[in-house]
Amino acid sequence: MEYEVVIGLEVHTELSTKTKIYCGCTTEFGGQPNTHVCPVCLGLPGALPHLNKKVVEYGIKAGLALNCSITKYGRMDRKNYFYPDCPKNYQITQDELPLCTEGYIEIELEDESIKKIGIERIHIEEDAGKLLHTGVGTLVDFNRAGVPLAEIVSKPDLRSPKEAVQYLEKLKSILSCIGVSDCKMEEGSLRCDANISVMEKGSDKFGVRTEIKNMNSFKALEKALNYETERQIVALEKGEKLTQDTRRWDDNNNITTIMRSKEFANDYRYFPEGDLVTLNIDDKWIEEIRETIPELPYEKEVRFVNEFKIPKYDAKVLTLTMSMAEFFEETAVLSEDAKASSNWLMGDISKIMKENAVWVENLKFTPKQLAELIKLINGGTISNAIGKKIIVDMFNTGKNPKVIIEEKGLIQNSNEDEIFKVVKSVLDNNGKTIEDYKNGRKRVLGFLVGLVMKETKGKANPQIVNKLINEEIKKY
To answer: Which residue of 17, 86, 367, 387 sits 20 to 30 Å from the alpha carbon of 471, by its own alpha carbon?
Structure first.
């Protein structure tokens, strides 16, 4: 029997407000445990919440960017459950009247067709604290309690783990672009719960749903969904009855493990939050917020392809974050070489950033300095190989490339007579390689070029080296 997978995602993103959703405590990441707290976010008796207007604004902004309708008359609700990191034993969230409804994101499939993934709702709520499991017991840190969240719930429109990752990547890029969240998954600013079931291919009846909780990387999401798809299919093939449950992804053993049976909405005994007034959102405010939405990543992607003539893949990667897109665009304009700008940012610079856990906005050098480096290479002052060494120095020191070149004497040698002497020496000492060339192995030319560049410490002009080798090797 053939099966089809059905996936829906519930994405929690921390909103980038300076203070928490119902009190004035800071939302800054880190800090000593239980130092970013007050009677309100600790749930102490008599402490009354007040709703942070900026949280509502950011929720509306996210909804508009995701093509949602805005609920003009709404409210906050209490979701009742007991857990050690939930100080009030209930969470202030939204139930029947979420802030945003009926939106969508479009993703591009492998055959380049466009698929629309529906967004059922976006609601705002408070985060819980954090449990710290130690060898002697479990401790709780309430610094995160009360940090504002937007929960974005997709419709069950995703049909593969790859589609789920594509959807989450695009959602992350949009939220980051509009500035409502930093979306740092490694800090928990973007977390994802996945609902997944399998059904007989062609059927319109969904299977039994499993929820996988709190995944904070694209890799973990794809692996967990692939595993769970296979687990459910194997169970059905064996005639086993699947139960609706909540599971977690065990990254060490690459399996999902059961946490508890899945709760239903009525288990939480939702009721209106009596300590907060209703929400009344007028059209004027919605339009004012709409005006603050910048060019979105997918719009920027199309413009980069058309304006800078770079490949679609490059444009997609460069627009994943607003900071990278802005760095690229300024570099491309100043250097007058968009493809070289793209290559440096996607290649050497991204590699260095990853190795050093640095974001593009924290680079010590500017787009103007990178553009200067590209012009020096294109103008023949230095070789591309030397440029790769210079970019490391620029990353470490923030110095201008011309300063580094002067300090280290890295100017490219274009003196043909001097380079000819090195080429002649390399050819004289590599008779077997020349024999291989004559026997049809043309790729050995690259090996010989590499030897010359090594002898000249990367300073020889590569174009002249190639020309001389091609001319001289025929004489042997």
So the answer is: 387
